[in-house]
From TrEMBL:
Record organism: Albidovulum litorale
Protein name as annotated: DUF2892 domain-containing protein
Transmembrane regions: 7-25, 31-55
Pfam entry (one): YgaP-like_TM
Domain Inner membrane protein YgaP-like transmembrane: from-to ranges: 2-56
Keyword RNA-binding: no
Transmembrane helix recorded as keyword: yes
Keyword annotations of the record: Membrane, Transmembrane, Transmembrane helix
InterPro entries: YgaP-like_TM (IPR021309)
Amino acid sequence: MTLDRSVLAFAGIMVLLSVALTVWVSSYFVWFTVFIGVNMLQSAFTGFCPAASIFRKLGIKPGTAF
């Protein structure tokens, strides 16, 4: 799995987790979903993604975007 696919999979898991936490635990977890969306948006414009940096250090092979 490349770095690009790893970041997309991680973002998808985090969004689903935050939605589940919002539904079943507390409505304040919606802010976690907002944070993830803002992070994805800034990554689209700047090319910097904290998750990609961490995955790169873990040895996942680079992809096209990151």
